């Protein structure tokens, strides 16, 4: 049985359609991340699953039950909000107990639940405090605690980390994933941050403009993006993109032919976008690689890695390479080598990946 | 004063002028209280001769002795409590759910209802139609009539509605996800979050009820039902009209002035006791920490 099943889900506000028929199956115990640029309909989709927004068209099922017309409280889902939405007038324990009290759980049981969850989230020392007296990370944990105590079938997260500073975000990200590994609750997580998506997800759903662009594991999406949008959205720095033409021997860019793996014979003459990820080049010539002559104009050290900004013909490209403790040897780089299997081709018109 | 030395000369002057103005204002609101209290403790002669300026002259409690020995004083005092407590509770019972409903985006015809409420602030039918209305409803000379006739106040509803509207939507959504129904969202989330606003409205209601005079005078004929303010007016009228009392004035232990002042002091005391109790709810920032902006 699937955990959450979306079939042709459409959302319209009046005449404006913002979600255009989404199909998605979230397996039981799976951690699925919806990622996409701001305004692409991620929150709207999540809120339809939560029951906070009506579904205009299509069918939504949670654990096999159609819930289109079921109130949020009867869907057995819990949600962590971007702004936490902790009740300011209640202390941490009462915030977590709120839902349990409304559901008339016996008092001793509530107490036990809160004790357990507080231990998991390391909130035991803060149970008496009001939200105003907590740090951002602690508030975030209380918000999660409030979801966890109820033992819902599905967790929904709407950008829960976006209000934290970078360091805390990394820390809480790992904590959320550990928690998922421990509790194994079906989770749907919305973010616009591709790093969060890559690190957290069992499967990523890339959305754009109210549609799903691609669904897959983080590595599938990274290595085989279905279109130029996904290719550009995932990965940092983003994939280098250059217009080119398919030839018998490879793809031609400004007179230079780059070897591409796969059978190109059917595609010869086709206008394409050539995509090369910054980290998919090497500085050593190896078998099966093509040399790209470049004019290096900037080296940015990041520590163990460095970014090379360079011109390749008329194109400004970025490459990522290891530093091996020093960047001195990078200053006179004049060629980088790209393996045929790492060159991605997308149709210049549609942006779809070419089947090779 | 923090960082006083960093203020420019102009700023310092501004602060000083402000302090003086605030001081004068405070004095001008405080002085009538002091004056009335002093008159109530002064002798009839001193009060009538206008000798009382700040402190009581020829201190005496005879005005209070007279006031507190009148059964009608106690009766009207009790009535005022009934009107104030009953009226305020009735008002809150109408205003809180009403304001909540009007603040919800999903209310059908929301703009229309809001307009209808606001309409009553600008246009009144007038005194006589209102009186006729009360008569036809059988609410003349009725304590219930006084309580319900003025229970619903558009200004207070709009005030609280605006406060409810400023509460982030995610609180309601979080409560809904937690399983709360409409009533629980209102009672367990919005009402606690709105304590400062509700305290303000409660204070408005209490003060309006406590000082309520005009309509009580118009609508009530039975002496046993009148509130303190109406009784106060009657007392002034009675004592002024009483020629015998006036002629013995030089020797009298109390006068219209001292008795009036004593009644006013008695009527102020409960409000003075009530205000500090409610003031603690006027703390801002209760929202802090609940949501991250
Ligand atoms: N209540 C609403 N009324 C009209 N349009 C809305 C409403 N809520 C969201 N939208 C629109 O729907 C689109 C998707 O919004 P949202 O799901 O919040 O995007 P995001 O992916 O950033 O979470 C946006 O273009 C937004 O303007
Ligand atoms: Mg969003």
Describe this structure in words.
The complex is a heterodimer of chains A (356) and B (293). With 356 residues, chain A is α+β, with helices and mostly antiparallel strands. The longest helix of chain A is centred in the middle third of the chain and has 18 residues, at 166-183. The mean pLDDT of chain A is 94. Chain A has 8 helices and 21 strands. A 6-stranded mixed beta sheet of chain A has the order 6-7-8-3-9-10, sandwiched between helices. A 5-stranded antiparallel beta sheet of chain A has the order 13-12-11-14-21. A 4-stranded antiparallel beta sheet of chain A has the order 2-1-4-5, covered by helices on one side. In chain A, a hairpin with a 4-residue loop joins strand 11 (240-246) and strand 12 (251-253). In chain A, helix 2 (92-102) crosses helix 3 and helix 2 (92-102) packs parallel to helix 4. Chain A folds into 2 domains: 2-229, P-loop containing nucleotide triphosphate hydrolases (Rossmann fold, 3-Layer(aba) Sandwich), CATH 3.40.50; 237-347, Nucleic acid-binding proteins (OB fold (Dihydrolipoamide Acetyltransferase, E2P), Beta Barrel), CATH 2.40.50. With 293 residues, chain B is an all-alpha fold. In chain B, helix 4 runs parallel beside helix 7. The radius of gyration of chain B is 25 Å and the shape is globular. Chain B has 15 helices and no strands. Chain B starts with 8 loop residues before the first helix and ends in a 14-residue tail after the last helix. Chain B has 2 domains: 4-69 and 228-270, no CATH class; 74-219, MetI-like fold (Orthogonal Bundle). The mean pLDDT of chain B is 88. Chain B has helices spanning 9-40, 44-48, 62-68, 71-103, 110-122, 127-136, 143-149, 154-166, 169-177, 182-193, 195-210, 214-219, 228-241, 243-247, 256-279. At the A-B interface, strand 6, helix 2 and helix 4 of A face helix 9 and helix 10 of B. The complex binds adenosine-5'-diphosphate and magnesium ion. Magnesium ion binds next to helix 1 of chain A. Adenosine-5'-diphosphate (ADP) binds at residues 13, 16, 18, 36, 38-44 of chain A.
């Amino acid at each position: 049985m699937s955990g959450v099943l979306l079939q042709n889900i459409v959302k319209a506000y009046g005449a404006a359609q913002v979600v255009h028929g989404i199909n998605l199956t979230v397996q039981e115990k799976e951690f699925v991340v919806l990622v996409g640029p701001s305004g692409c309909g991620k929150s709207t989709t999540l809120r339809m699953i939560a029951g906070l927004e009506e579904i205009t068209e299509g069918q939504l099922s949670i654990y096999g039950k159609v819930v289109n017309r079921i109130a949020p409280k009867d869907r057995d889902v819990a949600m962590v909000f971007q702004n936490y939405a902790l009740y300011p007038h209640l202390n941490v324990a009462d915030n977590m107990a709120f839902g349990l009290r409304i559901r008339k759980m016996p008092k001793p049981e509530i107490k036990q639940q809160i004790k357990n969850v507080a231990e998991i989230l390391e909130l035991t020392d803060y149970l008496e405090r009001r939200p105003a007296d907590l740090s951002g990370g602690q508030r975030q944990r209380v918000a999660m605690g409030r979801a966890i105590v109820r033992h819902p079938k599905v967790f929904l997260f709407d950008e829960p980390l976006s209000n934290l500073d970078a360091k805390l975000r990394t820390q809480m990200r790992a904590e959320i994933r550990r928690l998922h590994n421990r509790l194994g609750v079906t989770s749907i997580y919305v973010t616009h941050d591709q790093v969060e998506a890559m690190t957290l997800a069992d499967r990523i759903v890339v959305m754009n403009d109210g549609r799903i662009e691609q669904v897959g594991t983080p590595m599938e999406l990274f290595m085989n993006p279905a279109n130029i949008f996904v290719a550009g959205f995932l990965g940092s720095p983003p994939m280098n993109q250059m217009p080119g033409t398919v030839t018998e021997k490879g793809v031609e860019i400004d007179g230079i032919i780059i070897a591409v793996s796969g059978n190109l014979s059917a595609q010869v003459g086709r206008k394409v976008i050539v995509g090369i990820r910054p980290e998919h080049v090497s500085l050593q010539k190896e078998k099966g690689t093509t040399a790209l002559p470049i004019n290096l104009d900037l080296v940015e050290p990041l520590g163990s890695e460095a970014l090379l900004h360079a011109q390749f013909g008329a194109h400004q490209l970025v490459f990522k390479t290891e530093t091996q403790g020093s960047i001195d040897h990078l200053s006179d780089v004049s060629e980088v080598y790209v393996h045929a299997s790492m060159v991605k081709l997308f149709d210049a018109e549609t942006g779809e990946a070419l089947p090779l | 004063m923090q960082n006083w030395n960093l203020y420019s000369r102009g700023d310092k002057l501004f602060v000083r002028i402000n302090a003086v103005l605030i001081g004068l204002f405070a004095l001008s609101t405080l002085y009538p209280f002091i004056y009335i209290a002093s008159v109530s403790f002064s002798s009839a002669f001193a009060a009538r001769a206008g000798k009382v300026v700040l402190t009581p002259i020829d201190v005496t409690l005879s005005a209070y002795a007279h006031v507190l020995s009148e059964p009608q004083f106690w009766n009207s005092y009790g009535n005022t409590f009934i009107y104030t407590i009953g009226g305020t509770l009735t008002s809150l019972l109408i205003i809180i759910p009403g304001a909540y409903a009007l603040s919800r985006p999903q209310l059908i015809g929301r703009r229309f209802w809001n307009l209808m409420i606001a309409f009553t602030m600008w246009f009144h039918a007038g005194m006589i139609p209102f009186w006729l209305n009360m008569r036809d409803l059988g609410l003349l000379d009725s304590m219930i009539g006084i309580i319900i006739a003025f229970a619903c106040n558009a200004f207070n509803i709009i005030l609280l509605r605006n406060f409810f509207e400023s509460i982030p939507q995610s609180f309601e959504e979080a409560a809904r996800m937690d399983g709360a129904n409409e009533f629980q969202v209102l009672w367990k989330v919005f009402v606690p979050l709105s304590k400062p606003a509700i305290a303000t409205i409660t204070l408005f209601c209490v003060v309006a009820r406590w000082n309520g005079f005009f309509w009580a005078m118009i609508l009530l004929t039975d002496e046993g039902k009148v509130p303190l303010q109406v009784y106060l007016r009657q007392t002034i009228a009675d004592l002024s009209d009483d020629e015998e009392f006036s002629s013995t004035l030089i020797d009298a232990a109390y006068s219209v002035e001292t008795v009036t002042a004593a009644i006013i002091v008695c009527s102020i005391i409960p409000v003075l006791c009530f205000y500090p109790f409610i003031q603690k709810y006027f703390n801002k920032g209760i929202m802090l920490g609940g949501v991250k902006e």
